[in-house]
């Protein structure tokens, strides 16, 4: 597979985020949309692994480790960004169903 597009991963991600924002507003449930987005990412990444692997059964653990590490690094970077630059929410857009994350 050769990448012939000049579109960056950040531009593609922005398109997914725009759709997620639209769906969050439509559904009124950020958590539901976040869960759906994680499921979609997992499903698409499993497909990606399957088409890139000669023997996915044998390489499954390596794929899990690689995708998990990639996601963890990306999530960590974005959490740091939101800590440094908290999102400004409009009063009516505040999601009162936000959960407190406990370790």
Automatic annotation (TrEMBL):
Record organism: Shewanella mangrovisoli
Lineage: Bacteria, Pseudomonadati, Pseudomonadota, Gammaproteobacteria, Alteromonadales
Annotated protein name in UniProt: DUF3144 domain-containing protein
Family annotation (InterPro entries): DUF3144
